[in-house]
Amino acid sequence: xxxxxxxxxxxxxxxCRIHSLANYCGGTFHSFNKICRxxxxxxxxxxxxxxxxxxxxxxxxxxxxxxxxEGTGSTKSRSTKxxxxxxxxxxxxxxxxxxxxxxxxxxxxxxDIEEIAQNKDLSSLVxxxxxxxxxxxxxxxxxxxxxxxxxxLHGGENSTFQTLVNPxxxxxxxxxHGITTQMVNRPDVPRMEDLIPILLHYVRSREKPGGYVxxxxxxxxxxxxxxxxxxxxxxxxEVPPNWxxxxxxxxxxxxxxxGGTKLSSISLAALSELYKIKVDxxxxxxxxxxxxxxxxxxxxxxxxxxxxxxLVKKSFRGSDIINSKRKKNSN
DNA sequence: TGCCAGGCCCTCTTTAGGGCCTT
Length: 331
Description:
Helices cover 43% and strands 14% of the residues. The protein is an alpha/beta fold. A hairpin with a 7-residue loop joins strand 5 (145-152) and strand 6.
């Protein structure tokens, strides 16, 4: 028996009360791997690559949402009436987000990670979201986000969210991600301040009652999370206290140190090569990298024998990033 | 036109420097 399947078998025993990512994602590791084939998504704005249509602000045009029922392998488009209803709900819900609601996040006390990890019903509390951002560069003080993509690993309808973001500035690194100044500096592409309320509302719609959101990204601690915190703060918004972050970069390092694999480096590309994950689309586009990491994560956690609880223990809070920056500045 | 950071790890180390990862 392979190590991975053995761990999974152990985790399937309810009496163990251990919540693996496999359990989290619908009961089987196999179903976890099907997630990326589920085509249910929310797209606000995209490039021609995604076939999105433009429009004026507050008259945004979204693509019809289609659902690919897991396991059937066939795409089942909803009726036009259903699409309109859903679009209406989403739009109304977006409009209902206001400063008061955002302020409520800030009244909640930051969570105790150890306490959360020890919860016996962890899988019913945690929403795992793999995310990625594309930016105009590395220096978050001056640079801006040009694309953001998320995937709720629980799957289901609207389990992904992706949009281009108007940086309101020149995009000097189009050669990296293919996103040009012309693609994003348009009135129909939302600025970060436009997007934040929508994004927060979307994430809240994926949360479980009284639960937590576990954000996962590669190099999250050094790049994605500080960048997002900086952008939120620039728009007078704080990271919700029930958000936790996991960086897969140290997990890759841990795997490489453990030996037993042919991992050549700790990059996302090396991980996808190790696990023979075919990159479907242009690497360095946010949703492509999200899909890649979504497929890497379950394999990585099995190789490292990580349960959902142990993954939570390895997480950090937005406040940890902010506090470490304050300490550095005070020195 | 626009222009190179920051966190972590390793070691030839720890009062430092270089490499890797992210865009």
